[in-house]
Amino acid sequence: MKKVIIILTLIFSNSSFAQENGQEEIVFSRIGNLTDEQINSSGPAKLLFAKKSEIRNLAKQDLENGNPFLLLQGGIAPVIIATDPQFEDKYKIYFYEYGCTGPDQSLIEDYNKIIFSYLTDQYGKKWIKEVRDDVVGLNEWKKLKR
Prior knowledge:
- There is one protein chain.
- This protein is mainly alpha-helical.
- The protein has one domain (22-145).
- 51% of the residues lie in helices and 7% in strands.
- The protein has a two-stranded parallel ribbon.
- Helix 4 (55-64) runs parallel beside helix 6.
């Protein structure tokens, strides 16, 4: 009986994890398209040790490199929203979520404000209706822009 259970378990686990051609792939974020070097040299990676005066340059550099990020402050487990990959593709942007510890809140807000302005310049206000509500500094920025 034990052998039968083991064999059935192996067959089930093999068939449940095998992917056939044409099967849909689940994508959680576009950030997986970036190399380690691109991520490590990005503004969000440097923000932890940055000074307030450096934030504008970090965001501008990410924009020039074609790798702008919207920064999120998370917790123990990252929060992934089903529409994240579509938003990232449509607006050519990446979500970057810090875990339990991250840079000072004001640094994240300053970085994001530059990216918010870029998105508005490029796409108008339509991106605001589609973006995640938990992007750091978004609500305050929207109040100032009204």
